[in-house]
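Let's do one together. I've listed all components of the complex below, 619 residues spread over two lines.
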Amino acid sequence: MKAFTVSKAVTALMLAGLVLLPLYSQLSGNIFILTLFTRIVILALAAASLNLIMGFGGMMSFGHAAYLGIGGYAVGMLAQEGVGSGFIQFPVALAASAIYALVIGALSLRTRGVYFIMITLAFAQMAYYVASGLARYGGDDGLTVYKRSDFSGLINLSDRTQFYYLCLACLFAVIFLIWRIVNSRFGLVVQGLRSNEQRMQAIGFPAKRYQLVCFVISGTMCGLAGALLANNTDFVSPAVMYWTRSGDLMVMVILGGMGTLFGPVMGAVVFLLLEEFLSQITEYWALIMGPLLLLIVLFGRGGIMGALGRAGRG
Amino acid sequence: MLLVVEQFLNGLQFGLLLFLLAAGLTLVFGIMDLVNLAHGSLYMMGAYFAATFAAWTGSFLLGALMALGATLVLGIVLEMSALRHLYGRDHLDHVLATFGLILFFNEAVRLIWGPAGLALPLPAWLTVPVPILPGIHYPAYRLAIIVVALLVALLLYLGVMRTRIGMLIRAGASNREMIGALGINIKLLYTLVFGLGAALAGLAGLMQAPILTVQIGMGENILILAFVIIVIGGIGSIRGAFLAAIFVGMIDTLGRAFLPNLLRQVLSGAAASTAAPALSSMLIYLLMAIVLVVRPEGLFPANRR
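Okay, and this is what the predicted structure of the assembly comes out as:
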């Protein structure tokens, strides 16, 4: 903590708000806001995981929603087959996401730039079609999760407040982990690769291996978000991994500020609240959201965090 | 035998349609270095325009021609109002901005035409089956798509390789500063190329419209296929896009048609009918993965520095 800045103040305010939200929901009797923010926290977790490879690693994955689906389907399929324990469901969800990330990453990282964007997109779309073809698990219609993951008395996921705090704890844990990763030797190598891959390779770092490990870590984290999301909606369907969802995640990261620790969280909060707000004004909210995105890209360098930083300086 | 020939032609037809879409995408990327996700929206707009104009004029051909002009104009307007400002920016910016455009187009279509799909009925003379081989008939309309798409592919090739405009386009692709310094109006050239790409996407959309329903989001799934094609073919290469498109169209169509039966011979009936839909939709992605492993730059990388 070197100095007090506007961005730090706003971040702290936002985090305090997230922690105190259930209290407000209890006092005001507004249950909806808790449900909404549970979703926001889960997607913030997904956005934070995407930020690890996109913001710090320079790997523009346009297929991150695939992990949301894989994590979700791991929970849903196991529940369907009668395995209700969260101690099995969550590790399986994480492992499945990690394995998918390992395979996809190994293939996609053979390319770079715009090829990488398209390939991650195409593989996620493949996952989408595969899920649509799973007739046993609902196919296109999706799969209802009749019972949330059971953590045998440790924590009750059906309790709104407990579930919210579980999601928030996961978010904080992931951000802490990202912070440790980014500042470790490994993280510095990955960031070096973003700046100049050739030089890093010339110094003797095996570029692809570092990037692949980073890719897998990010995918695993997002798989966690997927498992939580399935528990939140009691439902998982191929639509979770549709490519527009990957786009949403990218937008959250950019909007909040790519390559900043808390930017994606801020981006998720603003994006989803904006979506909620606009959809209450008009049914055609995307008519406003679309051009807004265009404007943010054209004029909003560095996202919200960047703007806050400028406000603090100027 | 009948089925094989028919599916083969279906594959060719689908592949050629994909080529029209991929050609515009790869042209715009190769020359302006712009990743345009909204390309699928132009495909959708082509179909909506065609359905509307055909209903107005009562003529399929007239409606199709007007729709072609309308997508060309739409593309030019889009380029001049929004996309022009994205040249030279990061690819990620392109992806996000055009993602926003997709949201906009989908919602605008919902607002104007409503959430239900439209139908574009064919005139009677296009619905008759045409004998192509003794004893084998094929729908005239699908045959027409093949002919039109092949013609457009040929024109595109001649246009890019043999005309002055085509020469400028190729020159612009390899060095945009230099061609600007030589006194060529590069801005106008870019607008033209984008309009051409939009018209190609619109053509693909309006030709596909009578086969499928015209609906919101129709451009998105096929856009991903177009991406797969230019990844396989090599970004910026029209020849690569052509071959990859035919290849992908064939594999996708034949896979969907014959894979279930093939699987049934190996697996039990129930297992086969579960695995077949998932596997056949995976086929082209598997193909892409194999191409990537063997040639990460695509099969026919354009010579770019």
